[in-house]
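debug: dumping io for the single-chain case to check the tokenizer round-trip. Nothing else runs in this session.
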Amino acid sequence: MSFSKSGNSLFFGTAPIPKPADTTLVDFEVAKLDIWNYKDDYLQPQQLKNLQTDLKRSYLAVIKPEETNAKTVQLGNKAIPEILTAENKDARYVLGLTDTGARVSAQWEGSTRQQAILIDTRSGNHRFINASLGRYYISPQGNYVLWFDLKDQAWYCYTIATGQKINLSKATGTKMGDELNDVPGYASAYGMAGWLAGDKAVFIYDRYDIWRFDPATGDAFNFTKGIGRKNKLIMRYDQTDPEQKFIPLKEPMWLLTQNEETRQWGYFRKFPETNNLPEKAVMASMSYDNLLKAKNAETYIYTKASYKQSPDLYFSSDLKKEIKLSSINPQQSEYNWGTAELVRWTTPKGYQSQGILYKPEDFDPAKKYPMIVYFYEKLSDGLYNYIAPAPTPSRLPISFFVSNGYLVFAPDISYQTGHPGASAVEFVNSGVEALRKNTWVDAAHIGLQGQSWGGYQVAYLITQTNMYAAAWAGAPVANMTSAYGGIRWESGLNRQFQYEKSQSRIGATLWEKPELYIENSPLFQLPKVKTPVMIMSNDADGAVPWYQGIEMFTALRRLGKPVWLLQYNGEAHNLVLRQNRKDITIREQQFFDHFLKGAPMPVWMDKGVPAVDKGKDWGLELEK
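debug: decoded output
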């Protein structure tokens, strides 16, 4: 239960009395089964996954004790399960959201069309205001409803008092959806910074800048004066007070900023009601985080880091003159660490791309170094991230390998709908080819490592080229035709939307364009593979079906190719147990050391570990 800020309204949840179990039947006479029906809103696996939540679900109601003849008003119900209230909960109307009757299409769409309904907290009366694909917000004072329509790619504002709907984006002349969207689904919005007190203005992001809108009139102006787009600076409001409910008028807005070209981070600042250009406080080859303001002074603490420097705590009044307060990682000086630099190249089709190249701290250009290529979508914005050495859940432990004398290359990938495999070839291979021209890259000893979507691309890449000496594919999809109709068991969702609308980027059903599913499935091209490959595929994976790794392993085994499969019992998509993370880190080093450095092969790779020795012998010793 919760009161509104004034104390005049009490909100609480109600729920129907659950259906009692029939206790007259003995257990051995009760059938145990799940019944799937094509009319169900949600598939049975999703219903079962959410069963306990649904059994405990309640629906919002309100009572206003100060009113004459006060009565309980039921706001939510099974048909309108989600209710959004204004920040202070004193507004007369709440916002009900429902996708009832439109949920089946989420199987292939990935999202549903939401109806937005205003509900009167006094009478319970409903007022329909909109239906669209998008996320809805109610303003802090409850005067407006805001949403981004994915289909229209525009922000809209609805005035509750008048019923007026305004297209806010129209006044900007700027694209407000993701300009770099490369999946078949609709581009998502960049998001919202917040509201001024009293619902006087709302601040919304485009790719670079921040726009200020008057929600009553739709009037808009570029709050950051266009310097973001002009200079390719991505500017985002960083709330320095975690208890703050509105953007304060009398205090500066600190804008966390990244240079899209150099990937440097820093801060600009500007007061909400001024018309001045944002003032630069700092830009550096570092990353910044956790900026917090003192309660009663214009002073701040924050962390600052880079690949070479672990996050330490700093104190400052302007982020220019600062005092370092911590030194949490002095032991790093005892180890061969590394450096990170941005590299650029042009792909065969003329696309400009970039990635990160990590080098050992004692890098000598007169020597040759083995290189591991690790990727997942785009990683270059993490150029100045600190990567602590730790047992890996599945990804490549970059700091560990760099410290041990490897180059690590993390290329960005952009995608063409229908051809995700070929897109990986276009960007990854061309980036590797560009780096291979350097005499310090050992071109004969380059490896691949990827997990999940990256694991799929590793599996695809080795069917298209023999330039890699070893490949490690974690939780890969090998056969899109069999994966398409599967279940993501951690959520109970069907996988169709993934191929038609999101990351897998086919953009069509299996029966509309079966040739694309076959073209992008490594399984059908495995006879061409000459690269030794390691697969991790765990039997409790809730994202990628376990059998995908088995399909790949058994096919390569049937073809006489060098292949291994690690199956961590009871483990998920990414390893959780620390002992398993330590184990895979050791095996990953042994695998790449053997194929890229010529180290002896470990027993588990050479002779295997029979099931009769499971739990007694791990095969980690090296062959002599």
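debug: round-trip ok. The two ends are 69 Å apart (CA to CA).
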